[in-house]
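Supplementary Methods. Inverse-folding protocol.

Structures were first reduced to a discrete structure-token string of length 361. This string, shown here, constituted the complete conditioning input.
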């Protein structure tokens, strides 16, 4: 009986309401975190810079969208623009106040994104579904227009691009050309773990129950005393905060600089597909979705040519890209029709069957 709740007694309310009530879950999570930190010293520069850092950044953005769409039931197509707000806010803050550590501005930039997200979330009290998606799509195009047409956002830079100046932490470069992939990875990993822990406590607490009640039936939730407008605006604000921090990490700790086109509509759909495939209403599903969609083309580019080379066949990058779109599209259709909780649900079922076997319930 390797994985069951029987025999693990709770003697107080805190233990009963814990995020991870099972001892096995806590041990497994601790091992995953230790392995993630160990990877900084065992992995090469390519693995850290090209795979792990973007995976963590997109996972954080997917968590933000999942709070809004998965837990609150409000569809948003403006995730890319809210990420852009965080990136541009971080750039303005760290250039206006260079004496303040950039990590402070990465966290503060999310509040600007939260304010913009809450502003565009005001129509959510009256509209929902397709109409709310159209409203957030309008936010995407409006904010993207601002990124292009307001040169003040880039300090009147002729190129119109964001660049990452040299910034240090305890004398170690964490931003700029001298920052190593190992340092950037450790910083991104720590920020993602901290914000994931915060999101886990939110969705498992009173605020999370309010979001879920609004998602399941907003009229019944209002009759129970939950205020729909405040609850929905809070979901928009928290979701946009996570997306804003992810946008700042994307530009300054992965790309090292970017233009407005990074935060286009394709980025919004990119994050939405992660949430759908990973699992709506699941934090771990956000990581699964980001891993599948982002790492899939990298794995295909390595495995497929190696598998076909013994037969004298070669595969071009365009074929791999087409295969990626076909696989992602098929998975989206499958999970929307068969399993709305996505890979997170399949992981939960498989974990229980594996760890409980051969001792079935």
């Amino acid at each position: 009986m390797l994985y069951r709740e029987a025999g693990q007694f709770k003697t107080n309310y805190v233990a009963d309401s814990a995020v991870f009530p099972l001892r096995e879950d806590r041990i497994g999570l601790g091992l995953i975190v230790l392995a993630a930190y160990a990877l900084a010293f065992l992995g090469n520069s390519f693995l850290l810079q090209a795979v792990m850092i973007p995976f963590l950044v997109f996972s954080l953005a997917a968590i933000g969208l999942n709070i809004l769409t998965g837990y609150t039931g409000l569809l948003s197509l403006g995730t890319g623009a809210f990420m852009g707000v965080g990136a541009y806010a971080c750039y303005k803050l760290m250039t206006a106040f260079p004496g303040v550590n950039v990590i402070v501005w990465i966290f503060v930039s999310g509040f600007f994104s939260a304010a913009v997200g809450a502003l565009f979330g005001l129509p959510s009290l009256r509209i929902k579904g397709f109409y709310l998606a159209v409203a957030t799509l309008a936010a995407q195009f409006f904010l993207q227009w601002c990124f292009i047409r307001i040169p003040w956002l880039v300090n009147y830079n002729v190129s119109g691009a964001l660049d990452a100046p040299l910034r240090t932490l305890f004398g170690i470069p964490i931003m700029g050309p001298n920052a190593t992939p190992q340092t950037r990875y450790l910083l991104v990993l720590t920020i993602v773990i901290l914000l994931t822990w915060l999101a886990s406590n939110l969705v498992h607490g009173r605020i999370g129950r309010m979001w879920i009640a609004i998602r399941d039936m907003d009229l019944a939730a209002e009759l129970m005393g939950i205020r729909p407008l405040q609850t929905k605006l809070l979901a928009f604000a928290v979701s946009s905060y996570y997306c804003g921090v992810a946008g700042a990490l994307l530009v300054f700790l992965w790309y090292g600089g970017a233009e407005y086109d990074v935060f286009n509509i394709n980025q919004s759909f990119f994050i939405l597909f992660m949430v759908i495939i990973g699992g709506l209403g699941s934090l771990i599903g956000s990581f699964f979705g980001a891993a599948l969609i982002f790492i899939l083309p990298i794995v295909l580019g390595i495995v497929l040519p190696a598998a076909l080379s013994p037969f004298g066949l070669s595969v071009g990058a365009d074929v791999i890209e087409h295969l990626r779109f076909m696989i992602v599209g098929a998975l989206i259709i499958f999970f929307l029709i068969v399993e709305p909780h996505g890979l997170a649900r399949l992981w939960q079922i498989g974990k229980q069957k594996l760890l409980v076997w051969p001792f079935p319930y």
